């Protein structure tokens, strides 16, 4: 059974990473709608919707592949190691979201090596003319180097099976959806809320706390052999 607390943490990571998501995906969102008349709200909505569906599918696929890779290692110690790494990354992520320490940027630099080969595939779809092309672009852009995605990915790998890992990553992706999908006045209000220092630091502390709990739980499990 999937732990509700794990899904809530993953969803919170996505919500709090919304401002970061806009910075990473804002340019692509603009490219999706640049050739569409501002009065054509339906077409604009479809383009952004299909892009996000593709992006979410990509996240879930990556989580599934990553989990299968991890399970090829010795089962117990793989779980213990992933819980330890997940706890450290959750703490790093909390520090990142609160702007206290931005070490996750180094993870993004590692992922940029793979992105060099994937990015040209996305550029070949521009300018985007149909929702299907937007879907394909989203599936490609889901591989964009992002420390928050990597943290959520490792966290999802601590699940009991591949299905739970995918659902956990889906919860994270859905958390990012409101900010990326929102437009106009709603987006402005959402960004005002997200950018409030107190709000970001509150959730950052909660995520750091859960990271500490994950580390403690990992150590308690290994000692209980």
TrEMBL record:
Please report the name of this protein according to its UniProt entry. Answer: Cytochrome biogenesis protein
Q: Name one Pfam family in it.
A: DsbD_2
Q: Which organism is it from?
A: Candidatus Endobugula sertula (Bugula neritina bacterial symbiont)
Q: Which PANTHER family match?
A: HEAVY METAL TRANSPORTER, HEAVY METAL TRANSPORTER-RELATED
Q: Which UniProt keywords apply?
A: Membrane, Transmembrane, Transmembrane helix
Which parts of the sequence belong to the Urease accessory protein UreH-like transmembrane domain?
A: 10-213
Where does the signal peptide begin and end? none
Where would you find the membrane-spanning parts of this chain? 6-37, 49-70, 76-98, 134-157, 163-187, 199-216
């Amino acid at each position: 059974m999937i732990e509700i607390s794990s899904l809530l943490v993953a969803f919170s990571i996505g919500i709090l990473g919304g401002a970061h998501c806009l910075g990473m995906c804002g340019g692509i969102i603009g490219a999706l709608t640049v050739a569409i008349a501002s009065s054509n709200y339906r077409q604009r909505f479809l383009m952004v919707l299909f892009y996000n569906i593709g992006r979410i599918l990509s996240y879930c696929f990556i989580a599934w592949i990553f989990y299968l890779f991890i399970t090829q290692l010795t089962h117990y110690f793989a779980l213990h190691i992933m819980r330890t790494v997940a706890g450290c990354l959750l703490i790093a992520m909390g520090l990142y979201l609160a702007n206290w320490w931005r070490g996750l940027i180094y993870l993004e630099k590692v992922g940029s090596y793979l992105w060099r080969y994937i990015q040209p595939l996305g550029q070949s779809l521009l300018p985007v003319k149909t929702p299907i092309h937007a879907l394909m672009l989203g599936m490609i852009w889901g591989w964009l180097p992002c420390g928050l995605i990597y943290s959520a990915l490792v966290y999802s790998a601590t699940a009991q099976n591949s299905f739970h890992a995918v659902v956990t990553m889906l919860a994270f992706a859905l958390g990012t959806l409101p900010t990326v999908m929102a437009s106009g006045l709603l987006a402005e209000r959402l960004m005002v809320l997200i950018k409030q220092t107190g709000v970001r630091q509150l959730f950052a502390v909660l995520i750091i706390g859960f990271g500490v709990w994950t580390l403690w739980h990992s150590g308690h499990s290994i000692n209980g052999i």
